[in-house]
Amino acid sequence: MSSQRVYEMFQASIEAKMNVGETLAPLIAQAADSLVQTLLHEGKVLVCGNGPSSALAQMFSAALIDRYEKERPSLPSIWLGANMASYTAMVTPAHYNEVYAKPIRALGEEGDTLVVITTSGNASNLIQAVTTAHDRGLNVIALTGRDGGDIASLLDTHDIELRADIDSRSRIHEIHLLSLYCLCDLIDRNLFGIE
Protein backbone atom coordinates (compact mmCIF):
# COMPACT_ATOMS: atom_id res chain seq x y z
CA MET A 1 0.00 0.00 0.00
CA SER A 2 2.70 2.54 0.97
CA SER A 3 4.91 1.72 -2.00
CA GLN A 4 1.96 2.18 -4.34
CA ARG A 5 1.34 5.64 -2.83
CA VAL A 6 5.00 6.54 -3.37
CA TYR A 7 4.81 5.38 -6.99
CA GLU A 8 1.66 7.49 -7.50
CA MET A 9 3.51 10.53 -6.13
CA PHE A 10 6.35 9.95 -8.59
CA GLN A 11 3.81 9.75 -11.40
CA ALA A 12 2.07 12.95 -10.25
CA SER A 13 5.40 14.75 -10.17
CA ILE A 14 6.31 13.63 -13.68
CA GLU A 15 2.86 14.52 -15.03
CA ALA A 16 2.97 18.00 -13.47
CA LYS A 17 6.38 18.69 -15.01
CA MET A 18 5.26 17.44 -18.41
CA ASN A 19 2.08 19.55 -18.27
CA VAL A 20 4.01 22.82 -17.84
CA GLY A 21 7.34 21.89 -19.45
CA GLU A 22 6.48 22.86 -23.02
CA THR A 23 5.20 26.27 -21.91
CA LEU A 24 8.09 26.93 -19.53
CA ALA A 25 10.99 25.77 -21.75
CA PRO A 26 11.25 28.93 -23.91
CA LEU A 27 10.67 31.17 -20.89
CA ILE A 28 13.39 29.42 -18.89
CA ALA A 29 15.76 29.86 -21.85
CA GLN A 30 14.83 33.56 -22.00
CA ALA A 31 15.38 33.90 -18.23
CA ALA A 32 18.79 32.22 -18.52
CA ASP A 33 19.76 34.61 -21.32
CA SER A 34 18.69 37.55 -19.14
CA LEU A 35 20.75 36.28 -16.20
CA VAL A 36 23.76 35.73 -18.46
CA GLN A 37 23.48 39.34 -19.66
CA THR A 38 23.27 40.54 -16.05
CA LEU A 39 26.42 38.62 -15.19
CA LEU A 40 28.32 39.64 -18.33
CA HIS A 41 27.62 43.29 -17.49
CA GLU A 42 29.00 42.81 -13.96
CA GLY A 43 25.58 42.75 -12.33
CA LYS A 44 24.51 40.66 -9.36
CA VAL A 45 21.71 38.15 -8.93
CA LEU A 46 19.62 38.79 -5.79
CA VAL A 47 17.35 35.90 -4.78
CA CYS A 48 14.48 35.65 -2.28
CA GLY A 49 11.45 33.60 -1.29
CA ASN A 50 9.54 32.54 1.82
CA GLY A 51 9.51 29.17 3.58
CA PRO A 52 10.42 26.31 1.19
CA SER A 53 10.85 28.91 -1.57
CA SER A 54 13.56 30.55 0.55
CA ALA A 55 15.34 27.20 0.68
CA LEU A 56 15.16 27.03 -3.13
CA ALA A 57 16.49 30.61 -3.28
CA GLN A 58 19.40 29.62 -1.06
CA MET A 59 20.16 26.59 -3.21
CA PHE A 60 20.11 28.65 -6.43
CA SER A 61 22.36 31.35 -4.99
CA ALA A 62 24.79 28.73 -3.66
CA ALA A 63 24.95 27.05 -7.10
CA LEU A 64 25.85 30.40 -8.68
CA ILE A 65 28.49 31.23 -6.08
CA ASP A 66 30.02 27.75 -5.82
CA ARG A 67 29.16 25.56 -8.79
CA TYR A 68 26.29 23.66 -10.35
CA GLU A 69 27.66 20.42 -11.79
CA LYS A 70 31.27 21.31 -12.59
CA GLU A 71 33.92 23.64 -11.22
CA ARG A 72 33.97 27.15 -12.67
CA PRO A 73 34.52 30.72 -11.48
CA SER A 74 32.10 32.00 -8.84
CA LEU A 75 29.20 34.18 -9.96
CA PRO A 76 27.90 37.14 -7.89
CA SER A 77 24.68 36.13 -6.18
CA ILE A 78 23.10 37.12 -2.88
CA TRP A 79 20.46 35.08 -1.09
CA LEU A 80 18.54 37.83 0.69
CA GLY A 81 17.58 35.55 3.60
CA ALA A 82 21.20 34.83 4.53
CA ASN A 83 21.80 37.53 7.12
CA MET A 84 19.88 36.13 10.07
CA ALA A 85 20.59 39.06 12.40
CA SER A 86 19.21 41.58 9.89
CA TYR A 87 16.36 39.28 8.93
CA THR A 88 15.16 38.72 12.50
CA ALA A 89 15.58 42.40 13.37
CA MET A 90 13.23 43.30 10.51
CA VAL A 91 10.71 40.53 11.07
CA THR A 92 8.39 42.49 13.30
CA PRO A 93 4.82 43.39 12.40
CA ALA A 94 5.92 46.91 11.47
CA HIS A 95 8.76 45.83 9.18
CA TYR A 96 7.76 42.41 7.78
CA ASN A 97 7.00 43.86 4.34
CA GLU A 98 10.50 45.38 4.23
CA VAL A 99 12.45 42.21 5.00
CA TYR A 100 13.62 41.89 1.37
CA ALA A 101 13.01 45.47 0.21
CA LYS A 102 15.58 46.91 2.61
CA PRO A 103 18.49 44.75 1.42
CA ILE A 104 17.44 45.39 -2.19
CA ARG A 105 17.65 49.12 -1.49
CA ALA A 106 21.06 48.64 0.14
CA LEU A 107 22.61 46.18 -2.31
CA GLY A 108 20.64 46.33 -5.56
CA GLU A 109 21.90 48.43 -8.44
CA GLU A 110 20.58 49.13 -11.89
CA GLY A 111 21.48 46.19 -14.09
CA ASP A 112 21.14 43.61 -11.31
CA THR A 113 18.40 40.97 -11.42
CA LEU A 114 16.02 39.94 -8.66
CA VAL A 115 14.88 36.31 -8.74
CA VAL A 116 11.78 35.94 -6.59
CA ILE A 117 10.34 32.49 -5.84
CA THR A 118 6.76 32.10 -4.65
CA THR A 119 3.99 29.52 -4.91
CA SER A 120 1.13 32.00 -4.47
CA GLY A 121 2.53 35.32 -5.67
CA ASN A 122 0.67 37.09 -2.89
CA ALA A 123 3.13 37.45 0.02
CA SER A 124 3.35 41.12 0.94
CA ASN A 125 7.11 41.06 1.55
CA LEU A 126 7.73 39.58 -1.91
CA ILE A 127 5.39 42.07 -3.54
CA GLN A 128 7.37 44.84 -1.83
CA ALA A 129 10.61 43.24 -3.03
CA VAL A 130 9.44 43.36 -6.66
CA THR A 131 8.26 46.96 -6.31
CA THR A 132 11.57 47.99 -4.75
CA ALA A 133 13.54 46.13 -7.42
CA HIS A 134 11.71 48.11 -10.10
CA ASP A 135 12.37 51.36 -8.23
CA ARG A 136 16.09 50.53 -8.19
CA GLY A 137 16.23 49.57 -11.89
CA LEU A 138 16.53 45.80 -11.42
CA ASN A 139 15.01 43.28 -13.79
CA VAL A 140 12.82 40.65 -12.15
CA ILE A 141 12.52 36.95 -12.83
CA ALA A 142 9.54 35.57 -10.89
CA LEU A 143 9.01 31.87 -10.35
CA THR A 144 5.33 31.69 -9.46
CA GLY A 145 2.55 29.14 -9.14
CA ARG A 146 -1.18 28.84 -9.64
CA ASP A 147 -2.40 32.08 -11.32
CA GLY A 148 0.76 34.06 -10.52
CA GLY A 149 -0.97 36.08 -7.80
CA ASP A 150 -0.38 39.79 -7.30
CA ILE A 151 3.27 39.52 -8.34
CA ALA A 152 2.27 38.55 -11.89
CA SER A 153 0.38 41.83 -12.26
CA LEU A 154 3.46 43.83 -11.11
CA LEU A 155 5.79 42.48 -13.77
CA ASP A 156 6.68 44.73 -16.69
CA THR A 157 7.93 44.04 -20.20
CA HIS A 158 11.56 43.57 -19.08
CA ASP A 159 10.58 40.97 -16.48
CA ILE A 160 10.04 37.24 -16.96
CA GLU A 161 7.51 35.05 -15.18
CA LEU A 162 8.10 31.31 -14.90
CA ARG A 163 4.67 30.18 -13.77
CA ALA A 164 3.89 26.62 -12.68
CA ASP A 165 0.19 26.90 -13.49
CA ILE A 166 -1.03 24.10 -11.22
CA ASP A 167 -2.64 23.97 -7.78
CA SER A 168 -0.45 21.58 -5.81
CA ARG A 169 2.05 23.41 -3.61
CA SER A 170 4.49 20.50 -3.54
CA ARG A 171 4.35 20.09 -7.34
CA ILE A 172 4.98 23.84 -7.75
CA HIS A 173 8.10 23.57 -5.55
CA GLU A 174 9.31 20.60 -7.61
CA ILE A 175 8.81 22.51 -10.85
CA HIS A 176 10.57 25.55 -9.40
CA LEU A 177 13.53 23.37 -8.37
CA LEU A 178 13.79 21.86 -11.84
CA SER A 179 13.47 25.34 -13.41
CA LEU A 180 16.32 26.61 -11.22
CA TYR A 181 18.47 23.64 -12.22
CA CYS A 182 17.73 24.43 -15.87
CA LEU A 183 18.80 28.04 -15.28
CA CYS A 184 22.04 26.85 -13.66
CA ASP A 185 22.76 24.52 -16.57
CA LEU A 186 22.10 27.17 -19.22
CA ILE A 187 24.13 29.82 -17.38
CA ASP A 188 27.12 27.48 -17.10
CA ARG A 189 26.78 26.44 -20.75
CA ASN A 190 26.45 30.00 -22.04
CA LEU A 191 29.14 31.60 -19.88
CA PHE A 192 31.69 28.82 -19.69
CA GLY A 193 30.85 26.34 -22.43
CA ILE A 194 30.21 23.63 -19.85
CA GLU A 195 28.33 20.68 -21.33
TrEMBL record:
Q: What's a Pfam family this protein contains?
A: SIS_2
Q: Which SUPFAM superfamilies match?
A: SIS domain (SSF53697)
GO terms of biological process kind:
carbohydrate derivative metabolic process
Report what the protein is called: D-sedoheptulose 7-phosphate isomerase
- The species is Marinagarivorans cellulosilyticus
What's the EC number here?
5.3.1.28
The record's listing under InterPro entries reads: GmhA/DiaA (IPR035461), SIS_dom (IPR001347), SIS_dom_sf (IPR046348), SIS_GmhA/DiaA_subfam (IPR050099)
Q: Which GO terms describe its molecular function?
A: carbohydrate derivative binding; isomerase activity
Q: What is the enzyme's class at the highest EC level?
A: isomerase
Every copy of the SIS domain together lies at: 35-195
Q: Which domain of life is it from?
A: Bacteria
Q: What is the lineage of its organism?
A: Bacteria, Pseudomonadati, Pseudomonadota, Gammaproteobacteria, Cellvibrionales
Entry keywords, A to Z: Isomerase
